[in-house]
Amino acid sequence: MTLVEALPLLMFAALAVFLFSGFPVAFVLGGVGLSFAFIAILVDPWLFDWPQFNAIPARIYGAISTNLILTAIPMFIFMGTMLEKSGIARDLLNCLQVLLRRVPGGLALSVVMMGTILAATTGIIGASVIMMSLLALPVMMKRNYSPSLASGTIAASGTLGILIPPSIMLVIMADLLSKSVGNLFVAAIIPGFMLAFFYMIYIVTRCYFNPALAPKPEASMGPKTTAGYIGMIIRSFVPPVLLIIMVLGSILGGLATPTEAASVGAFGAILLAVLNLIILPGLRVPEMHFEGEAQLEDDKLQDGEGLIGRFWRIFKDVVMRSALTNAMIFGIFIGATLFSYVFRQIGGEEVVIHIFDSWGLGSWGILFALMVLVFLLGFFFDWIEITLIVLPVFAPIITKLDFGDHVAAIDTVYWFAILMAINLQTSFLTPPFGFALFYLKAVAPPEIKIQHIYAGIIPFVMLQLTGLSLVMFFPELALWLPRLLLD
Amino acid sequence: MNKTALSPIYNSIDGLLAWVARLGAIAMVALVAITMYDVLTRYFSIPKFPGLNSTMVQESEYWAHGILFALLMGYGLTRQVHVRIDLVRDMMPKKVKYAMEIFGILVFLVPFSYIGLIYCYDYAVKSFVDGEVSPSTIGLSNIWILKSTLVAMFGLLILAGVSQFLKAVDGLLGNLTVQDEEHVLGGGH
What we know:
- The complex is a heterodimer of chains A (487) and B (189).
- In chain A, helix 3 crosses helix 13, helix 4 packs parallel to helix 12 (258-282) and helix 9 (168-176) runs parallel beside helix 16 (383-400).
- Helix content of chain A is 72%, strand content 0%.
- With 487 residues, chain A is an all-alpha fold.
- The longest helix of chain A is centred in the last third of the chain and has 39 residues, at 307-345.
- The radius of gyration of chain A is 23 Å and the shape is globular.
- Chain B is elongated and about 60 Å long.
- At the A-B interface, helix 2, helix 3, helix 4, helix 12 and helix 13 of A face helix 1, helix 2, helix 3 and helix 4 of B.
């Protein structure tokens, strides 16, 4: 093998090494890409030469700056952050745990439901697992929940958001694979809810047979009167659920584009925050408080702060936070644009295709190989890095996969994306590396040991693998709904 | 931050980046407002402002986003929002971490941003000279402004790189407090 032939492989190896230097991923991608462009110029100007750098601004501009679909991302992030910081997510969890207090494992079920309903809030693994842990873990510990069950539930529910729409990851995947975001969202619905349903069945069954895992609260928890109940539901449950139904419904109904739906979500979240932070307290509607409620009080009134002042403080905080998260995602986007451009220019695509061809794997073999690769990458990287590095490189292979009668050719890519999403989520949860578990450990109270977390997550990993196999062998789970709704 | 010989320089750079970022964050509000306006006029037959067609509105949406990510990228570096993979680095002594940070800034961040800056500058200038307008002729004109956001982005990244470089030098010299170190090296994701 000559140096020219080996260059793409060296490039990947260098990326792998330098990613672990701990320097921000976005700039390692850009920096390694650039270094190999320089090396290629030195080695063989036919491979890469200075004028080719002119394509970089055009690519960033064409694929990112002028991409209307990607504008959905900051708005979904904004919506999620707003629901979290204005206390709406916390109120929803409290309301759910009151409603489910008589069901075995009720609090754990509330966590799963919250993860499902507020999937948009849970788009970025680190942020979402930390948020869910801070919110739900103290309550579960106070209630003497089994530390394993509690931590397993939180890690699994906190990562469900990458699959259940509106998922930011699916927006990016659809964009990279040149497919419709709306279709991919619809395709994710049945697999996503199926997994949430598996979690719930598991929790109820286990807690029914072993109530000591999840001690029930006093039956008197929550509002004392029926009117109080209805008030609680109208106040804490209906608004966020309605908002999510509006956002999802408009996409599912084929009415709105994901970008438009995202703006409805973001704007609706602002309205809910105004309701929660200004209107209700202004009308002196009492806040809900009860023994054993979840607390996370960014929205606590500070000294000398008025209602409007508080809303303004939270609003500004949410705008800046979501703008920064968005910058983080697009930083990686831009670094990966340069990396994959140089990789392709120096012949990386042919090398990858050649390697896969030389293994003689066939479509199923390639599918399994890619799934294993993605699973292993998930031990170290978040989906942002994985999708942005892997998909551009493997897209030509993915679009050529052929499963005969098993999956219709036009649906293959959607099916692949859903498999990859479930696979990634599983990877984030799998001990010993699964990094959702590290985030959880980082913010968990010290009495929760990493062994508890490992023990607690294993059943959920089994459920994930079941879900993954089901979607793999019954592609209709992902493909039936889009056909029904969108054709 | 601790007061050192270098700190006035990086503190003023950070101040500038924060100011630009606050300006850029307004684009987030604009993005939601414009897209919402688009939705209302499209689906609820609310009349549009005269002279404003929906191509223009949709193009404004990505203009807003272009401004949003470009103006926050550099500030994000000083705020440590860019994801790092710390698994291996966490095992290193502090001095090595600072040295690696300096290496990353000099070898990855600054060359990448510099090449980005000069090529995007040519790209934007060409657009300005050609008087480029939106490919759909009824869209927005002055495309050079949107292309210039990329120039700003790479310029701000270089500034942020300089600031982080000076902080890392201070760290290597042992001039930083434990609290400051987090601003230079980041930690976790």
